C-alpha cells in the first residue's frame, strides 16, 4: 500500500506554500510531467480518468464522457462490467475520431466513503491498464519504449464527496508514481512502455488554480518499497538528478488552457449537485452510561452541499415514537400531523434544512433505524405538512459493507423469468385478500402483455400462482389441484432462474427470530422466508413484497393477541435486509397499510418505468411515487421501503 504524501501542503484557499526544490534528473530516471489544464474534457490529449461510486448514476464528468463515447460507459455499467468496487479500474475506448481518446474509470466503492488511499489504489490500476494497452501495440524487440500519458479530473472533490483538491491531486499523482514503479519492476513491460505525463483537467478557473497551488506545494512523494521520488518545478530542461531519486515528478509552473479549451470562469454554481443523491447514514448508538431508561440514541451522518460531514445525535423516547408509528402504519390514510410529529421527534434540527433542500436522499440504515417510516416523515412546508418522499427522491440501503457488497458474490439470473405469487391461503393467519389477488394478476398481465416495438424491446416469461377467492390459477406452471399451496409455491421457486419475484400476500413477523419472518404461503404455518430464497441456485435481482393490503395486518404480529398494527414496518425491514444479505440487488416492501387500487398502480407504474423504459431504480421509484400520489389521497405512495442503489437497472442486465 502506498504511503501518504509527506511534506508541506497548502489548503485550497490559496495560502503561500513552499516551492519544491529544483533538483535535476539523469537520463535513466523516469520522469512524470504534471500539468494542470483549465478546460473541457473534450480537449483532453489522453484517456480521461474519472471516479465512479457503487450503484450511482453516470453524472458530471462521467456522464459527459459517456455521451462523448457513444454510451459505452453506460453499456458497461448495465452489463456489470464496470469499476464499482473500491480500488478497481476499467479502460474504455478509444473510439475512432472521438475525443477524448478513451476513459479510465476508477472504482471508489460506496458513495460518501472515498479516501485518498482508495483514489491512489484505483489510479494505480488505471495507469497500469493504460500502460498495458499501449504495450500490446509495441512489437517485441522494437526500437524503444513508447511514452504514454493520462488525463484526469480531480477525483473525489465533488462537494458531496468531501475530499479537498489538495488531497485529490496528491492521491492521483501518487497513484501514477506507484504504477511507474511497478512497471519498472517488470523488465519486459518497461522495455515497451513508459508513463510520461499526467494532465489534471478542471473546467472552472478558480478550481484549476487551486489545483495548481496544490501540486506545486508537494514537497516529496514516497512510492512502495522505499523508492525516492524527486518533486521539482519544470524549467524546460532535464538534467542530472539527485543521486537518491529513482522517479522524478516535474510540475509545470503555470496553468494552461482557458476559454479556448472550453474553460469557464469562476467556480461551479450552487446547483452544481442538483439531482445528486445526498447520502445520510442513520444508525442506532449504544446508550451512554447514565442515559435515561427507555431512550434510544440515533446518529445521523450526512454529506451535504457544503462539502463537510455532519455527525449529529438525536435522543428519542422509544415508547412514544413506537406508539406514533403504530398509529400511522395501520392506515392507508394516516393523520398527516402524526407524520409531522414523527419528523420533529426523529430528525435533528441541524439536519432539517439539508433534508428539505435535497434533490435525492440515499438513506444508509441499520437493523434498528430501518424500521422507521422515513419516507412519510413530513416537514411543515408552505403552510402544510409535506412528506419527504413527496418532494425528494428517497431510496434506502443497508449501512453494513457486507450487505452492500453481497451482490458482487452472486451470479445474475439467466433469461428473463418473472415469478408472481398472489393471495395464497393463509389459514388462521389472515382472511382472503382480493386486493392482493388483483395486484398479482395485473403484474402478471403486465409482463405477459405486448412489449414495445423496436430494437430494445424485451420479452419476459411470466410464471404465476394466484388464488382468487381461494381458487388457484397457474400460468406457465403446473396446475394446483390440491390444498398444498405451499408445496406448489416452493417448487415454483426452484423451477426457473427468476430475475424478478413479485409477491402480494399475508406476512408474518417473528420478533424472537426476525430472520424467520416472511410470507404466509400455506394454511398450516408454512412461510416463505429469505432463508429459502438464499438457497436458490441463483438469487433474483429484484423482490417486490406487499403484505399490507387494505390494512388487514393482524397476521403480521405472528401470534394471537398481539397488536395488529405494529409489525408491518418490522417485517418489511427484516425481510429486505435478509434478502440483500444474500445478494438481491433491490427490494421493495410495503411498510404499512396500502390502498388496494393504489398498490396495484404503484406496482405496474414501477415496472413500466424500470422495465419498459429502462430507468434506474432511484428515478423509477421517484416517478412512481409522483404518479400514485397524484392519483389518490392515500399515503400508499410513501408506504413502500425501497432498498438498493440509485442506478440499478432491470432492463439491460447481462443474460448469461
Helices and strands in order:
Layout lengths: L30 E8 L9 E5 L7 H9 L3 H7 L10 E4 L10 E5 L8 H20 L10 E7 L12 H20 L2 H4 L2 E10 L2 H12 L3 E3 L5 E6 L13 E5 L4 E2 L19 E9 L9 E9 L5 E9 H12 L6 H11 L2 H9 L2 E6 L14 E2 L2 E2 L7 E6 L2 H5 L11 E6 L11 H15 L12 E8 L2 E5 L9 H11 L2 E7 L2 E2 L9 E5 L3 E4 H5 L7 E5 L21 H14 L4 E5 L5 H17 L4 H15 L8 E4 L13
Parallel strand pairs: 1-6, 1-9, 1-10, 2-4, 2-5, 5-6, 8-9, 11-14, 14-17, 18-19, 18-21, 21-25, 25-26
Antiparallel strand pairs: 3-4, 7-8, 11-12, 12-13, 15-16, 19-20, 22-23, 23-24, 26-27
Describe the structure.
It is a single chain. The protein is an alpha/beta fold and 656 residues long.
Characterize this entry briefly.
Helices cover 28% and strands 23% of the residues. The protein is built from 16 helices and 27 strands. A hairpin with a 2-residue loop joins strand 19 and strand 20.
Search tags:
656 residues, ten-stranded mixed beta sheet, disordered C terminus, alpha/beta, 16 helices, 28% helix, 27 strands, disordered N terminus
Terminal CA distance reads 35 Å
Total strands: 27
Helical fraction:
25-40%
Mean pLDDT: 80
- Give the count of helical stretches: 16
Going by helix content, strand content and strand pairing, the class is: alpha/beta
Kindly provide the radius of gyration, computed on alpha-carbon positions and rounded to a whole number of angstroms: 28 Å
Main sheet makeup:
10 strands, mixed
Shape category: globular
Per DSSP, what share of the residues sits in E-state strands of 2 or more residues? Answer: 15-25%
Low-pLDDT stretches: 1-26, 222-226, 236-243, 550-566, 652-656
Amino acid at each position: 500500500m502506498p504511503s501518504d504524501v509527506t511534506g508541506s501542503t497548502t489548503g485550497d484557499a490559496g495560502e503561500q506554500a513552499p516551492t519544491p526544490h529544483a533538483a535535476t534528473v539523469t537520463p535513466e530516471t523516469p520522469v512524470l510531467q504534471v500539468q494542470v489544464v483549465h478546460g473541457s474534457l473534450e480537449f483532453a490529449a489522453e484517456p480521461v480518468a474519472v471516479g465512479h461510486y457503487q450503484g450511482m448514476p453516470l453524472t458530471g464528468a462521467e456522464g459527459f464522457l459517456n455521451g462523448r463515447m457513444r454510451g459505452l460507459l453506460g453499456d458497461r455499467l448495465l452489463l456489470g462490467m464496470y469499476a464499482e468496487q473500491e480500488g478497481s479500474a476499467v479502460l474504455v475506448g478509444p473510439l475512432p475520431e472521438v475525443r477524448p481518446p478513451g476513459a479510465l474509470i476508477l472504482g471508489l466503492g460506496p458513495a460518501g466513503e472515498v479516501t485518498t488511499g482508495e483514489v491512489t489504489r484505483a489510479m494505480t490500476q488505471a495507469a497500469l491498464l493504460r500502460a498495458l494497452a499501449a504495450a500490446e501495440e509495441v512489437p517485441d524487440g522494437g526500437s524503444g519504449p513508447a511514452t504514454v500519458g493520462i488525463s484526469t479530473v480531480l477525483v473525489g472533490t465533488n462537494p458531496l464527496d468531501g475530499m479537498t483538491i489538495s488531497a485529490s491531486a496528491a492521491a492521483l499523482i501518487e497513484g501514477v508514481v506507484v504504477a511507474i514503479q511497478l512497471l519498472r519492476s517488470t523488465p519486459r513491460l518497461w522495455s515497451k512502455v513508459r508513463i510520461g505525463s499526467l494532465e489534471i483537467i478542471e473546467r472552472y478557473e478558480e478550481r484549476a488554480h487551486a489545483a495548481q497551488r496544490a501540486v506545486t506545494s508537494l514537497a516529496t512523494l514516497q512510492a512502495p518499497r522505499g523508492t525516492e521520488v524527486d518533486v521539482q518545478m519544470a524549467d524546460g530542461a532535464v538534467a542530472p538528478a539527485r543521486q537518491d531519486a529513482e522517479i522524478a515528478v516535474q510540475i509545470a509552473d503555470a496553468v494552461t488552457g482557458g476559454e479556448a479549451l472550453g474553460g469557464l470562469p469562476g467556480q461551479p454554481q450552487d446547483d452544481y449537485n442538483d439531482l445528486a443523491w445526498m447520502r445520510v447514514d442513520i444508525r442506532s448508538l449504544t446508550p451512554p452510561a447514565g442515559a435515561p431508561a427507555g431512550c434510544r440514541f440515533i446518529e445521523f451522518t450526512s454529506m451535504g452541499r457544503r462539502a463537510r460531514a455532519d455527525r449529529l445525535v438525536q435522543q428519542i423516547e422509544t415508547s412514544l415514537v413506537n406508539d406514533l408509528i403504530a398509529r400511522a402504519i395501520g392506515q392507508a390514510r394516516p393523520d398527516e400531523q402524526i407524520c409531522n410529529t414523527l419528523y420533529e421527534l426523529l430528525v435533528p434540527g441541524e439536519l432539517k434544512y439539508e433534508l428539505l433542500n435535497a434533490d435525492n436522499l440515499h438513506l444508509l440504515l441499520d437493523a434498528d433505524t430501518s424500521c422507521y417510516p422515513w419516507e412519510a416523515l413530513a416537514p411543515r412546508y408552505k403552510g402544510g405538512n409535506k412528506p419527504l418522499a413527496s418532494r425528494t427522491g428517497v431510496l434506502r440501503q443497508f449501512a453494513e459493507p457486507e450487505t452492500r457488497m453481497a451482490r458482487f458474490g452472486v451470479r445474475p439470473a439467466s433469461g428473463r423469468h418473472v415469478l408472481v405469487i398472489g393471495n395464497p391461503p393463509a389459514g388462521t393467519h389472515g382472511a382472503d385478500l382480493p386486493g392482493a389477488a388483483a395486484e398479482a394478476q395485473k403484474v402478471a398481465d403486465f409482463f405477459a402483455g405486448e412489449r414495445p416495438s423496436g430494437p430494445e424491446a424485451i420479452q419476459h416469461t411470466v410464471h404465476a400462482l394466484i388464488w382468487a377467492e381461494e381458487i388457484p390459477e397457474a400460468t406457465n406452471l403446473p396446475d394446483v389441484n390440491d390444498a398444498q399451496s405451499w408445496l406448489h409455491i416452493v417448487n415454483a421457486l426452484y423451477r426457473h432462474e427468476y430475475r424478478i419475484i413479485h409477491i402480494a400476500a399475508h406476512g408474518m413477523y417473528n420478533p424472537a427470530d426476525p430472520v424467520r419472518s416472511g410470507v404466509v404461503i400455506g394454511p398450516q404455518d408454512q412461510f416463505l422466508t429469505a432463508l429459502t430464497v438464499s438457497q436458490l441456485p441463483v438469487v433474483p435481482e429484484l423482490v417486490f413484497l406487499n403484505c399490507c393490503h387494505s390494512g388487514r395486518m393482524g397476521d403480521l404480529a405472528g401470534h394471537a393477541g398481539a397488536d395488529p398494527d405494529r409489525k408491518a414496518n418490522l417485517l418489511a425491514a427484516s425481510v429486505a435486509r435478509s434478502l440483500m444479505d444474500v445478494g438481491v440487488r433491490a427490494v421493495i416492501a410495503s411498510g404499512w397499510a396500502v390502498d388496494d387500487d393504489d398498490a396495484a398502480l404503484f406496482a405496474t407504474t414501477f415496472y413500466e418505468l424500470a422495465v419498459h423504459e429502462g430507468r434506474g431504480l432511484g428515478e423509477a421509484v421517484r416517478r412512481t411515487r409522483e404518479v400514485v400520489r397524484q392519483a389518490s389521497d392515500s399515503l400508499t405512495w410513501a408506504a413502500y421501503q425501497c432498498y438498493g442503489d440509485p442506478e440499478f437497472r432491470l432492463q439491460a442486465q447481462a443474460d448469461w
